Amino acid sequence: MKRVSFKNRDIEVVGNIHVPPDLNEADAYPAIILATPGSSVKEQIGAIYAERLSDGFIALTFDPSYQGESGGEPRDLEDPSVRVDDIHCAVDHLTTLPYVHEARIGVLGICAGGGYAIKAALTERRFKAVGTVVANDIGEAMRRLLPDFRQTLQDVAVKRTAQVRGAAARRDPWIPDSLAEARAAGITDPELLETVTFYRESEYRHPNSTNRLLFVSYGSLLGFDAFSLVPELLTQPLQVVVGGRRGPTGQYEAGRRLFDLSPSRAKHFLEVEGAGHYDLYYKPEYVGRAVKRLAEFFSEHLTQDSSRS
User: Fold this and answer.
1) Phi, psi of 121 (to 5 degrees)
2) Taking the CB of residue 207, how many other CB atoms lie within 10 A of it?
């Protein structure tokens, strides 16, 4: 693994490049950029998939601007336009590496990163293949899950005015900070408890993952739309991976919608039976099935012949 950094305008974005064990820097390899879920840092889900895909591919995972080890102020900002631009800048960086074949680059987005990856791929023709795992359009998800998103927008307006007048920024938890806190709040949904377990109480908990969302981020998140231009602009081969067990995150429905919208003649849909949304983050029996299919897909499409088409 190689630690790297690149710029998104004046922000330093910090990432890890996972490389094949027998890397020969005189050769040029196909590469995959991984776009991670909201609140997640590069050492978590991105690393799980990058490590497995690095047997044959260069795999780059990175902390989004304003989060993790990456720079940018204010901290904990989740801005979809910046998240998408991070991905474009990651492509820029890969094209400077002599061991990356610049015509054989793909993108893999997971959860909210799936929506960001799709949005980037709409105009990023350097991507020759696009994959998603439990992809979500975070804007649609927020509009669906928030009790009253119109009131949230009003609250954002009030908070922005207060901040510009000197008030402290507000940061809310993405999820409860512990299972005990979740249960004390009356949360019983198994999928939400699963994500609390993964992020806050498992071996994958990481100190760089703050579990905090700058409140004014909702202003950008609620206006985001990842999929609307897919029929017109998403021309690349597409692999959609969803969990077969449906739940409140809507990952199955979002993946099916993305698949149906895609005009590509080379699109594929994999339902991992028995898996819920967060099972596909880290559980070997489910991640293994997803990675096997993704490796086949990227191997098929990140070739010299297909890159010329």
Assistant:
1) -65, -20
2) 8
